[in-house]
């Protein structure tokens, strides 16, 4: 019934817009009607084209400027609108009203691949971005995550180098596993994430059939100012489905836009995908209870139960790809009262980087675009700049002032964090690089283990530096001897040398 209604509505909309197009004048950007859109003005039948043809000049100028810089990572993306319905009452944990029982909050979601450019194939082995913008009654909250629960590195200072090693070689412009594994073999903290990426989770069959993870710990703060640390997990109600190594070339040969087509095809049929939002919760004192640093984003919180808090449903394909999916700007720093960042060193770097790149990529006033604009009034003293359209009126553009009454509610002050010691530049104490990679390997089915090993062998066979190859193998061996042995054998490497190197590694 619902499906029929939705399809009828789509057909009606298509009809309305088609008939409107027939009725309306074609205009220039100033709204003036155009007389002839097929022939330029010329000086007689054989003369040059006239500069006074402002419709022609405007068309060419606008075309010349159609591109904005694509995202430096996650350039290939697909967006959809929907809503999030909170079911649980989380007032014991947070004052954020997106988490009030029964509250429905509109969302915009963007799924993406990470490394390749805007038009690249969607089947590439890559993490998938899973970004959710909640338009809450207290302002926008962006949960900018991935389809895997952890990340490759734990300190933002390594991020530009990490991305450079994965991006195409600056000489050949080709992605090169030799460069990637040069970086990874010098970054043992990446071992667990590689075990995820090279499993078939690295090639999802559908955006609808993958989970999402906030990855970092965040803080929830309740009305009494009490803090809890949480991790977020979107569980797909469609289940998980991945492409096997054998399926990838077949799918890619038919359609390298398969993930977008799958999502938009489902939405057009009214087969709206859903994800349940789960949280894990720790009291601050419990962070110390783990053999690893609980604020290290290369770690999952093992043994901490998850509870379901609500459900997100995607319902609508945006009507304009560029003005929604391309111009959307997600940032981990975009939070609302009751949600704060944890001290995770990666998250702390991300708090700066996203809004910074968006000022460059989209423009200074990118937050005023409809896709990014909060659904609540924005009242502050930011002003002017490229394409400003705040509609702000009045003379008072400073604070403090006695001439205007703008409240600052102390209830919304950031929570306080007790500190000790001096400033420092030091790695975290509890690294535990390999244990969770081994656990992940052992959790896989026999066929998934086979594919993981085969996928790694394919890329690691391109490593040209023997020391790098053996170092990387020693990480997998340390994670799980069977795992390391299988990859080593696949590469025809000396297993006893791998074993000896692994024996020298810590935790
Ligand atoms: C310090 C580490 C990181 C830095 C500096 C960084 C930086 C960036 C930048 C500059 C963008 C482009 C944003 C834009 O142009 O709008 C981006 C996009 C993105 N990043 Fe990161 N990133 C980091 C780590 C991570 C991690 C750990 C995750 C996953 C948990 C992640 C997930 C994403 C996603 C999903 C997008 C795409 C957002 C969208 O759909 O528009 N990033 N990142």
UniProtKB/TrEMBL annotation:
InterPro entries for this protein: Catalase, Catalase_AS, Catalase_clade1/3, Catalase_core, Catalase_haem_BS, Catalase_immune_responsive, Catalase_sf
Keyword Iron: yes
Swiss-Prot/TrEMBL catalytic activity: 2 H2O2 = O2 + 2 H2O
One Pfam family here: Catalase-rel
Claim: Hydrolase is one of the keywords in the record: no
Function as written in the Swiss-Prot or TrEMBL entry: Decomposes hydrogen peroxide into water and oxygen; serves to protect cells from the toxic effects of hydrogen peroxide.
Family (UniProt): Belongs to the catalase family.
Protein name listed in UniProt: Catalase
Organism in which the protein naturally occurs: Robbsia betulipollinis
Lineage of producing organism: Bacteria, Pseudomonadati, Pseudomonadota, Betaproteobacteria, Burkholderiales
